[in-house]
Amino acid sequence: CTSSADNKDPKRTATSADILVKWVKGSFSAANTNCDYNPQGGSLPQESMVYFSKYFTPYLIEDFARFTNIYYLQSNGVELGTTPEEIKVFLGMLITRVLKKIGEKSTRIPTIADSMSAKRF
User: Fold this and answer.
1) Which domain of life is it from (predicted)?
2) Angle 84-96/58-76 helices, nearest 10 degrees?
3) Domain total for the chain?
């Protein structure tokens, strides 16, 4: 494919009228359009804590606890004493959406309900 605009003013851009296309007759060779995608397997689902730790690093959890305590102290004049472990439990409660049903026997999840009282939450 050549363009007649190649030898003219360099500031001028080629238009479709300037481009010359030379077609060549030959045999058609079709491309393979079969879907040959073979996934290479994958990994088994991990424990929920593995996924949680990818988004909430230990440093982030520690910062949440520290800044929660700073805020509470500034607001109330008393230390709250929130620990990083309590922050993990709190986030777990929010993520699993069981806040309203923690006390109900039919929806109680012991690992969450036994970790922190509703009053402490």
Assistant:
1) Eukaryota
2) 100
3) 1
pLDDT in tens, 66-108: 999 999 999 999 999 999 999 998 998 787 765 566 667 777 7
* The one-letter amino acid at 83: T
Residue 1 located in a structural domain: no
Q: Which residue has the higher pLDDT, 93 or 64?
A: 64
How crowded is residue 19: how many other Cβ atoms within 10 Å of its Cβ? 13
**Structural domain containing residue 101:** 48-113
What rounded mean pLDDT belongs to the chain?
Answer: 80
Note the pLDDT of residue 1.
45
Residue 64 domain-assigned (yes or no): yes
Higher pLDDT, 34 or 78: 78
Residue 39 lies in a domain: no
Q: d(Cα 121, Cα 100) in Å, to the nearest integer?
A: 12
Query: 66 lies in a domain?
Result: yes
Q: Is the dihedral of CA 100, 103, 104, 106 positive or negative?
A: positive
